[in-house]
């Protein structure tokens, strides 16, 4: 008998070696789903630990076992002393999509960005990733520009209240 993952909508920040290993596996799966290169999960987990230690990165997970991951990078704006966050990675495994987990994970991302004092969050995605675009737009992100070659790369932003 196969057990289905518990898909609770609680979002947690990674902090343990097991969480980092789960995040790395999900991120590698994400890249492989889109035929993009990826390091081995153990290499990526070590790199994620270094990013977390630097203090500008958060890695969030959802589900037990983890079925979704988000990576946020914070920085001070070039133009003012305000904090901006980039949502660098966002992934929910295909088998559990359509259950609200992406929305819950994105809500956790927005909460964490606000906790960091951010006034702005941005991200990029491709034109053909309609599922991701649907979640981003549902949560108030607006598309502003695209790229000239390949699938159109769309940039989204949202002001944080």
Description:
With 161 residues, the chain is α+β, with helices and mostly antiparallel strands. It has a single domain (6-159), classed as Gcn5-related N-acetyltransferase (GNAT) (Aminopeptidase), CATH 3.40.630. Helix content is 34%, strand content 33%. The chain has a seven-stranded mixed β-sheet, sandwiched between helices. Strand 2 (57-64) and strand 3 form a beta hairpin. The termini are far apart. Residues 1-5 have low confidence and may be disordered.
What order do the helices and strands come in, and which of them pair?
Layout: E1 6-13, H1 17-33, H2 41-54, E2 57-64, E3 68-76, E4 83-92, H3 101-115, E5 118-126, H4 130-138, E6 142-143, E7 153-159
Parallel strand pairs: 4-5
Antiparallel strand pairs: 1-2, 2-3, 3-4, 5-7, 6-7
Helix pairs in contact: 1-2
Order of helices and strands: EHHEEEHEHEE
What fold name goes in the CATH topology slot? Aminopeptidase
Q: Give the tally of β-strands.
A: 7
Distance between the termini: 46 Å
Unreliable stretches covering 5 or more consecutive residues: 1-5
Overall morphology = globular
What attributes does this structure have?
single chain, 161 residues, alpha+beta, Aminopeptidase, 7-stranded mixed sheet, 4 helices, 34% helix, disordered N terminus
Brief description of this entry?
The protein has 161 residues and is an alpha+beta fold. The protein has helices at 17-33, 41-54, 101-115, 130-138; strands spanning 6-13, 57-64, 68-76, 83-92, 118-126, 142-143, 153-159. It has one domain: Aminopeptidase, CATH 3.40.630.
């Amino acid at each position: 008998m196969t057990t289905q993952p518990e898909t609770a909508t609680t979002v947690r920040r990674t902090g343990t070696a097991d969480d980092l290993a789960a995040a790395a596996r999900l991120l590698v799966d994400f890249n492989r789903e889109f035929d993009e290169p990826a390091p081995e999960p153990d290499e990526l987990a070590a790199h994620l630990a270094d990013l977390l230690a630097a203090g500008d990165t958060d890695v969030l997970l959802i589900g037990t076992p983890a079925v979704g991951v988000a990576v946020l990078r914070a920085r001070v704006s070039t133009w003012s002393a305000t904090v901006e966050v980039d949502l660098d990675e966002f992934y929910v495994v295909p088998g559990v999509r359509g259950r609200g987990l992406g929305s819950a994970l994105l809500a956790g991302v927005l909460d964490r960005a606000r906790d960091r004092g951010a006034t702005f969050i941005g991200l990029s995605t491709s034109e053909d990733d309609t599922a991701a675009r649907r979640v981003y737009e549902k949560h108030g992100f607006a598309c502003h520009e695209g790229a000239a070659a390949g699938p159109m790369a769309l940039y989204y932003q949202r002001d944080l209240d």
